[in-house]
Amino acid sequence: MLQVPTKRPPLRKLNDWTWEISQDYKKDGPKMLVPARIFASKKLIDEMDLAVYEQISNVAALPGIVKAAMVMPDAHWGYGFPIGGVAAFDLDKGIVSPGGIGYDINCGMRLIRTDFTLKEIEPKLKQLVDSLFRLVPAGVGRKGFVRITGKDWKDVAQDGAQWCIKKGYGFDKDKEHIEDYGAIAGADASEVSDKAVKRGVTGLGTLGSGNHYLEIQVIKKENIFDEKIAKTFGLFPGQVVVMVHTGSRGLGHQICTDYVDLFRPKLKDWGIDVRDQELSCAPINSKEAERYLKAMRSAANYAFANRQVITHQIRKGFSEAFGKNIDNMGMELIYDVAHNIAKEEQHIVDGKKKKVLVHRKGATRCFGPERSELANIFRKTGQPVIVGGSMETGSYLCVGTAKAEEETFGSTMHGAGRTMSRTAAMKEFQGEKLQKAMEKKGIYVHAVSMSGLAEEAGKAYKDINEVIDTMDNAGISKKVVRFLPVGNVKG
């Protein structure tokens, strides 16, 4: 059971953007093997959820962890790991923890450019949002229009977004703009339970609920921070873009549940002592860990496929609204990136190149230029990083840096980060009032429910600008463009 401290633990300030909890902080239970490192401005440190400090200290005590357990500036309490947590483990001595990846495996972001300007879409904005609400089902338990069973499911688990493209749900060049080209190697659908498959196969092309959304956004001239990179990505002032936030839905949730239940009773046999049972894990070199990783990759590929089908529907919605051919609207994919994932990657540890298993939970990969995992088109800019803010405040496109590879295993924030629980937000805000207030600001929202809308009020989140500026000033990720919301489909 997590014991949340009543006050913040002693912090050592490394610089204006980095703080550290000594590995001597925890005296009882398994010892911290590495320090816990927090990336945050002074303002964000002062506002940080106290549970984050406890959870990341617990992560620092997991077997085989290297360098430091880290949290990003958008961090808040989560299951096992804090959301915004990053940790890398030695492939021989380390572990894999489902709680370090999350229930929504490969929950992630996708950004689509268009040739449209705000002036062009404003007369049809409501019609467009309502059409997208119809074309992209949102909410709990909704079914998508793409039906997959049997061999199709295995192919989706193996080929991810590439399966969708072959079936006509996208452009061939889309795959160059997806992390791992939309298909992570090493997936195996046979390691996914029938219950998980049953929960997942009907959901392809759906948003889900919670903080998942489909948002129409606009770029203002003053919100372009790097004109050269923005131009490289085909972005310009007044332009309309579309951002999607969703993941593997019930499939990923059930896989996480299945393997936490499998790992927990075996901890003693493996000689693993954890500070929190939510950190249940398996040695990386065990058969159980191998099975989980194959299942996790299957869910990750399903999530890429899910966002690919949604992209197809978005293109269809714009085509219907404006009477243009789906190929002639400039609706090209800028990037699709995961923020709940574990991957084997090579990083510098103790001055030497080393392969490690990096867990990112509510954290985005942000490799710098020339990294071999990136498609050639991103070798000069660095990896695109898509950061969703609240539906009231806007979102960002950033790029990764070489410094990120040195300091954070090539990781940065994934969003604004909650400051208020969903229950507290529903008590504080009324969905109907929020919807009307947003419409007065020029943001049209079509939501599944008013209670769900209240949960996502802007005031329930941290200041996205403060979060972005923290990592920009730290040199971890570089801000390129800020997007402002004008229309939103909310799960």
**Termini separation (Å)?**
31 Å
Low-confidence stretches: none
E-strand count: 19
Instruction: Characterize the main sheet.
Output: 8 strands, mixed
Strand portion: 15-25%
Which word captures the global form?
globular
The Cα radius of gyration reads: 21 Å
Instruction: Report the mean per-residue pLDDT as an integer.
Output: 95
| Helical run tally | 16
Helix content: 25-40%
The helix/strand class is alpha+beta
Written overview of the protein:
31% of the residues lie in helices and 24% in strands. It is an alpha+beta fold and 491 residues long. The chain is built from 16 helices and 19 strands. The chain has helices at 42-47, 50-59, 118-121, 125-135, 151-159, 161-166, 194-200, 227-232, 249-263, 267-270, 287-322, 402-407, 422-428, 431-440, 450-455, 464-473; strands at 12-15, 18-21, 36-39, 69-76, 83-90, 95-96, 108-117, 213-218, 239-246, 282-283, 333-338, 340-349, 352-361, 363-365, 384-387, 395-400, 411-413, 444-447, 477-490. The strands form four sheets. Strands 7, 8, 9, 11, 15, 16, 18 and 19 form an eight-stranded mixed sheet that branches. The chain has a seven-stranded mixed sheet with strand order 1-2-3-4-5-13-12, with helices on both faces. The chain has a two-stranded antiparallel sheet with strand order 6-10.
Quick description:
The protein is α+β, with helices and mostly antiparallel strands and 491 residues long.
Name the descriptors:
eight-stranded mixed sheet, 24% strand, 19 strands, 31% helix, seven-stranded mixed sheet, 491 residues, alpha+beta
